[in-house]
Write a structure and sequence with these properties.
- The protein is 39% helix and 15% strand.
- It has 382 residues and is α+β, with helices and mostly antiparallel strands.
- Helix 4 packs across helix 5, helix 5 packs across helix 8 and helix 11 packs across helix 12.
- The longest helix is centred in the N-terminal third of the chain and has 20 residues.
- The model has no long low-confidence stretch (mean pLDDT 94).
Amino acid sequence: MEQNIFSPVYRPAVGVRFLVRSPRARADTAVRLREWLAAQHLDTGQHGPVDLSASSTALRARLRCTAARAWAPGCNTLNLSGILGLEPDSPADLQREIAIGLLLSPVALDFPDFDEFESAVRIRMLTVEAARRTVLDFAPDAIERPEDCWDYDAQTGFTVRAGHNLIDALKKATQPDLTGRRYAFSCYRATEYVMLLAIAQEAAQSNPSLLMRIQSLAHQRAVQSREFHEVYLREYGSMRSPLPLGYFVPGDRVWFRNPDAVSAQAEGYEGSWVIYLGAGHFANFWQSNRPFTLTSKCIEIFHWRHAVRTDAEGNPVIDEDEVARRVADSLTDPAQTRAILQRMQRARAPRGVFDRGGCLDTTRECARWIRPASCDIAVPAN
């Protein structure tokens, strides 16, 4: 179980809001939501763990104070699965963990209707499934994808070959159980492929025309980095209004910042992008059978500073074997582990600042709305 070094100060859950204005729409949404929550063993009755309330503009669902304090003290969800006895490999239990995480949110998570909420939960589940199956080689500057379904051009980046399906191409690039080969990625690009796969899979079910637009663009050029974030993702929390440091919902994209100025100059080591899998685990795209915990991830990033080397061209690189050796040593020394965590498990400083702050980000990222009537994924024309 992860150590709880985070603030024990209670923050009331804000939870999920459905922005339905008409009384009839609110009533219909309430009925569907109650049925869905009941299937997750989350009762909305007077003595149940979920508070359901309505105003003239919205329907809100959130975890009641007693349940929030018992299940996620300090809004730390890392131990939620263990506290409730959930099985990480059970889709039903994963869905329940996602539901509770959303109901615990310290900021309002808005949806236009129940359909959009249901899709958001499914996208999170699909993201976790894809992240668990993703195994890659870490090489930020390498250029390789399965040649049968991907092309590369310096101007357009990696594109899906004409006649090939985007979902299948994304799976082949990231899941070696399909191809027998691991392809080179940066962690940033890996999270993009994993999240795009989940979005595309849900679009195939709930908005086929959106999938057609996404696939058409994938045949023409890559959408990546800042543009990917702006087109496909929604960020919640901020530097001014940070999320609780231990608050994670399965399917979140999470950034760990490298607070060391020297090792952060090595390409690919400015920080680490991961997917939260639930049950206190974060995706390890290089060794999928050894997911990170918050402790192991923070210790790994801390030891990058002790493994900086210079390559033949004079560029800084990180000796991964040295990192692994130091991480193993630290994890066997409780005093050293505590000292590292006290330094690293703090909110990150602003970009460009290295004299203060830890490695934990103040925001999380998830998919935008996807349903035809409310979709806010604005796929570029080309």
